[in-house]
Design goal:
Helices cover about 90% and strands about 0% of the residues. It is mostly helical and about 120 residues long.
């Protein structure tokens, strides 16, 4: 295996771990506790449904930068929160708050890493 192949494999594995993030865990927990939909079907079908959104976010990041990609992510979170009001206002509010923390966390991480690592 050459260095390019190793780098590709490492990058793919890292991305797979990024997809499985604390935010996804929190959202899955919210949906599992507040709906009757079978959670494993939710994960499988939701994953397939997210592929076009992931591609759109990636395209936006490549074209216009991180904030454009985050803008789409925030927009989809707001749509999810609006849709979830039919399930529970509490779930919708929690979805919105989690989205705010993700954006704030991104800004804080950038600020801290710039301060300490230049």
């Amino acid at each position: 295996m050459n260095n390019d192949t190793s780098a590709y494999i490492i990058t793919i594995v890292a991305f797979a771990f990024f997809v499985l993030c604390p935010r996804l865990g929190a959202m899955t927990n919210l949906l599992e506790k507040n709906t009757n939909f079978p959670i494993y079907w939710l994960v499988i079908l939701g994953t397939f449904g997210s592929i076009p959104l992931l591609l759109a976010m990636t395209w936006l990041i490549k074209q216009w930068g991180l904030m454009a990609g985050l803008g789409l992510a925030i927009f989809t979170d707001l749509i999810a929160a609006a849709i979830l009001t039919s399930v529970s206002i509490k779930v919708a509010l929690e979805t919105f708050i989690i989205a705010l923390f993700v954006v704030a966390g991104n800004k804080l991480a950038t600020w801290v890493s710039t301060r300490f690592l230049g």
